[in-house]
Design a protein that fits this description.
binds 2,5-anhydro-1,6-di-O-phosphono-D-mannitol, 333 residues, eight-stranded mixed sheet, globular, D-Maltodextrin-Binding Protein, domain 2, single chain, binds magnesium ion, alpha+beta, five-stranded mixed sheet
Amino acid sequence: MLPNTDLVTLNGYINQQERKFPKAMGNLSGLLRSVGLAARIVNRELNKAGLADILGDWGTTNVQGETVKKMDIFANSHFIAAFKRGRRCCGIVSEEDEEWIMTDEEGAQYLVCMDSLDGSSNIDVNVGVGTIFSIYRRLSADHPVSKLDFLQKGAEQVAAGYVIYGTSTMLVYTAGSGVNGFTLDPSIGEFCLSHPDMKIPENGSILSVNMGYAKTFPQGIKDYIDYCLAEDKSTKRPYSVRYIGSMVADIHRTLLKGGVFMYPSSADAPNGKLRLLYECNPLSFIMEQAGGIASNGKQRILEITPTDLHDRTPIYMGSKNMMDKLLALYKGW
Ligand code: AHM
Ligand code: MG
């Protein structure tokens, strides 16, 4: 039998897409290639975690007051370096940096927002972590890029995605016409198309939430959780509760298996914990492109106008039918 040579690599796929737009300058493709390169470097280092001296805390806290892990610094530096080397973006917002970062490419058209290592508190216990990225066009090339360029609604994203460093490493992204997943083949060092045109099941039976804070969730959310946990054979309840504590991993499972992921407001965190620009917006773009719903309870996440780079928002996202039920019980906070 002849060997299967039908291999589509991330680069090959990006080239294919680019050929559909003869006037494309290759800028977006260049950015996606930078993501792929930095992801492979981070993946290599994560695979050595435990062997090399890269576990544990860096000894500082970041702009959010959270303990910075050594891998946070490693991933942040490599993603920033890859974007700078790629010369396709004029500015970067990172979870790790209070201010946006100017690159040397003042004339470039694109901006990047990223959480270079999401769920990093899970590394020391060998649980999946991720990278989240979001790409925008700058508002105008007529004036110097400024913070305002980053405060666009998520609906304006040109592309977004995540890398999950799990039992295998995958890069999943959308450029606004569906979602595709690429799995890293470590033997050839390439991301290969493994999950074309990903769609989230319309129904699901998994609820993903940190139940530790449930007592102070809004009443409508408590009602929805009660609904999920109530016994009813005809709707296959009670549902399962699964919470990894790495948003990328929880969303990846939700995308593949169906379900609802949520990080509501609570007494201690009136806006929830997750950040709009580099966590909620990109993953909501993916979710919607895969046929799911992403909301803060009042409106689509993608319709929220950010007021600051590190804004937070409560978030509820997942399978259409489960989300319809949630939004029927919860009308905002
Ligand atoms: P991080 O970006 O500092 O890693 O924090 C974000 C993570 C998400 O991946 C996850 O959904 C959430 O924090 C878990 O928080 P909690 O432990 O409060 O449930
Ligand atoms: Mg994060």
